TrEMBL record:
Organism whose genome encodes this protein: Nematostella vectensis (Starlet sea anemone)
Domain of life (superkingdom): Eukaryota
GO MF annotation terms: phosphopantothenate--cysteine ligase activity
InterPro entries: CoaB-like_sf, DNA/pantothenate-metab_flavo_C
Protein name: Phosphopantothenate--cysteine ligase
TM segment ranges: none
């Protein structure tokens, strides 16, 4: 299949890369090499929304609503299943483990105490944060093992540059790499050379001429990480078209999985779509009431598929035709 490289290559040629691009490349390369040498599978999770600046000296921007709930929750569950996780997340969106404590409540769960000698200390009220002990235990285990690498982005351009760089690094490491592309990526942008240099005047109506963001899934699958296991997400508001859209994406990009969900029920029901099957995953109300998360079930099923993919890829690389 011929790849139309003009769109995405032109995009990168006209946008400014983030200042930390090479630093991130080195960090991801070192992290991934270490964990592959240790025999761990690695998942790159993208999470949160993307901001589209309206000026080069940005004051205003267009944003989307994603807070990073699915990505951050999924990261924790992948870590529990023994994966090393590269977490590419939007600035100020939810992070693994940190998501369990609301920033607004952090001061409410702590008390300032002084003893009789005048020494002061801080005491945590676990009754106000009943999951804190378990969350802290799991977080410290991950810190000791070094299985979580956090990489932050803000704008759409930063995200796309970082995604390409990470894919190029991880793409050399074979089928043991999974891409879990849960970030909500903006569909439109304003090229740098078309943006106002300074704050847009507020006089009169505002007219914007935006261009469509090139679909980076195509070069990721076909060029940057050809041997990786790739999971994309499809969010729709119309239940009648979601399955069709998911299958169209699989056909167009030739990757392994689409996790499809409807906006209004995304925390309760998803459908995992592959070229050969559709698997519905849902959360009964009693499980939701107990604080269980649909991401735990999603991750378990995807890991099963990833293991099958690794096995099939190993057979093919050894020159043996898989059994039919």
């Amino acid at each position: 299949m011929r790849i139309n490289m003009a769109d995405w290559e032109e995009y990168f040629s006209k946008q400014t890369p983030p200042a930390n691009l090479e630093e991130t490349r080195n960090a991801v390369s070192e992290f991934a090499a270490s964990h592959r040498n240790a025999g761990r599978n690695i998942v790159l999770i993208t999470s949160g929304g993307t901001a589209v600046p309206l000026e080069n000296n940005t004051v205003r921007f267009i944003d989307n609503f994603s807070s990073g709930t699915r990505g951050s929750a999924s990261a924790e569950h992948f870590l529990q299943q023994g994966y090393a996780v590269v977490f590419l997340y939007r600035q100020h969106s939810l992070q693994p483990f940190m998501r369990q404590i609301s920033p607004e409540a952090i001061l409410d769960i702590m008390d300032f105490k002084e003893d009789r000698e005048g020494a002061s200390h801080i005491q945590v009220d676990e009754n106000r944060a009943p999951n804190l002990r378990e969350v802290l235990k799991r977080y410290q285990e991950v810190q000791v093992m070094g299985t979580l690498l956090l990489v932050e982005f803000n704008t759409l351009s930063d995200y796309l540059f970082l995604l390409r760089t990470m894919a190029e690094v991880l793409g050399t490491m074979g089928p043991q790499i999974m891409f879990y592309l849960a970030a909500a990526v903006s569909d439109f942008y304003i090229p740098s050379d078309s943006m106002a240099e300074h704050k847009i005047s507020s006089e009169g109506p505002l007219e914007l001429n935006m261009q469509q963001v090139p679909k980076m899934l195509s070069p990721l699958v076909k060029l940057w990480a050809r041997n990786a296991f790739v999971v994309s997400f499809k969010l729709e508001t119309d239940v009648n078209i979601i399955s069709k859209k998911a299958r169209e994406a699989l056909t167009k990009y030739n990757h392994q999985v689409v996790v499809s969900n409807i906006l209004q029920t995304r925390k309760k029901t998803v459908v995992i779509v592959t070229p050969s099957q559709e698997m519905a995953i849902w959360m009964p109300d009693n499980e939701l009431d107990l604080g269980k998360e649909i991401e735990a079930k999603i991750v378990v099923e995807l890991i099963k598929m990833h293991q099958q993919f690794i096995g099939s890829s190993t057979i093919i690389m050894q020159g043996i035709s898989p059994a039919k």
